[in-house]
Design brief:
The chain is built from 1 helix and 10 strands; from the N terminus they run H-E-E-E-E-E-E-E-E-E-E. With 207 residues, the chain is mostly beta strands. Strand 7 and strand 8 form a beta hairpin. About 2% of the residues have low confidence.
Length: 207
C-alpha cells in the first residue's frame, strides 16, 4: 500500500542550527510560536501572494478572456492565501477578544485580552491591522499591519495587551507628503492577517 505523510515540514533557510530547532519543535520540547513573514500561495498561478493587496486586485478572471485557462495571466484564484502573512500554529490554542478602541490625545488605543485556552504553556503574537475608511479618492490596501506583540501565557492564563498608534502612522504619502485625514478607521486584532483570525473595531479620528 502507498504511505502518505500527514504533514510536510518546510524550514526555509533557517541557518546552521535549524536542524536542532526543528527536532525540539517536533519532539515537543519547544512550543512553536513563529509567524509567517510572507504569504504562501495556494498554487503557483496565484503568485504574487500578499496580505495587503488592493481590493481591485482580487477581481479574479475566467477562461473566456483568452479562450483557455491561464491562472498566471488571468488569476482565477483569490488573493487570500490559505497560509497568509502572520499565520502560525502552536501546540496550544488562544482566544483573542474583540478589541476595544479609544481615540485620545492624537493616538488610537487598542486593547485586547489574550487567553491560553489549551493545556500547555505557549506564546501568541497579537497583531493589529488597520485601514482608513475616509473618502480620499484613493484605493487603500484591504489591511495593513501597524502593531504586534508576543505574549507568553501559561495554560488557562489571560493577559491584557494594549497598543497605541499615533496619528502619523495612520496616514499615507501623496507626492512625498504625509496626509492624515479625519474620519472613520477600521482596525482589526487577531492571530494572523486571515479574515477569520481577526476581530474588528471602528474608530473615528478627529485631528
Amino acid at each position: 500500500s502507498t504511505l502518505r505523510s500527514n504533514a510536510i515540514i518546510h524550514s526555509l533557510l533557517g541557518g546552521e542550527f535549524s536542524n536542532s530547532a526543528l527536532v525540539e519543535v517536533i519532539t515537543g520540547k519547544v512550543n512553536p510560536s513563529g509567524k509567517l513573514t510572507v504569504s504562501m500561495p495556494q498554487l503557483d498561478g496565484a503568485v504574487p501572494a500578499f496580505y495587503d493587496y488592493l481590493p481591485s486586485d482580487d477581481a479574479g478572471g475566467s477562461q473566456d478572456r483568452l479562450g483557455f485557462h491561464s491562472a498566471y495571466q488571468w488569476p482565477v484564484l483569490q488573493k487570500a492565501s490559505p497560509m497568509p502573512f502572520g499565520f502560525g500554529l502552536s501546540y496550544t490554542t488562544f482566544d483573542i477578544s474583540t478589541p476595544m478602541a479609544e481615540y485620545k490625545k492624537g493616538e488610537v488605543h487598542i486593547r485586547v485580552t489574550v487567553k491560553n485556552t489549551g493545556k500547555v504553556a505557549g506564546k501568541e503574537v497579537v497583531q493589529v491591522y488597520h485601514r482608513p475608511n475616509t473618502s480620499a479618492g484613493l484605493e487603500f490596501p484591504v489591511r495593513r499591519l501597524v502593531r504586534f506583540d508576543k505574549v507568553d501565557l501559561q495554560a488557562g492564563e489571560s493577559k491584557d495587551v494594549e497598543f497605541s498608534i499615533p496619528n502619523k502612522e495612520l496616514g499615507y504619502y501623496v507626492n512625498a507628503k504625509l496626509i492624515v485625514r479625519e474620519g472613520l478607521y477600521n482596525f482589526w486584532a487577531g492571530s494572523s492577517s486571515r479574515a477569520e483570525d481577526l476581530k474588528g473595531v471602528n474608530v473615528t479620528v478627529a485631528l
